[in-house]
Amino acid sequence: MMNVKDKNDPLYFPYEWDQDGVCEHLDKNTYRCKIYYKRPLICNVDRIAKYLNLDKGKFYELNISACNKMMDEDGVPLHFRIK
User: Fold this and answer.
1) Half-sphere exposure of 12 (CA within 13 A, CB side)
2) What digits encode the pLDDT tens for the residues 6-62?
3) For residue 48, is it within any domain?
4) Nearest CA among 61, 36, 49 for reference residue 10
5) Is the pTM of this model over 0.90?
6) Domain membership of residue 3 as a residue range
7) 60 and 29 assigned to the same domain
């Protein structure tokens, strides 16, 4: 995922990821976002789908396809695939 640093870009993501690609605001004990109500556009499914002019179902479909492709490329076991 590209980390957009231009504050004027609607896809601006001002946070960092750790070595595993996990956002610094994900609580690793609860797996909940610590800034959920202040999260950026890119982290809000309803808002980002609308921004991209996609219905939420299509947005999910595209994301599932991309996730599964990345898992295939990285050799992740099949039982982790998203259906």
Assistant:
1) 7
2) 778 878 888 888 888 889 999 989 999 999 999 988 889 889 899 989 999 999 999
3) no
4) 49
5) no
6) 1-43
7) no
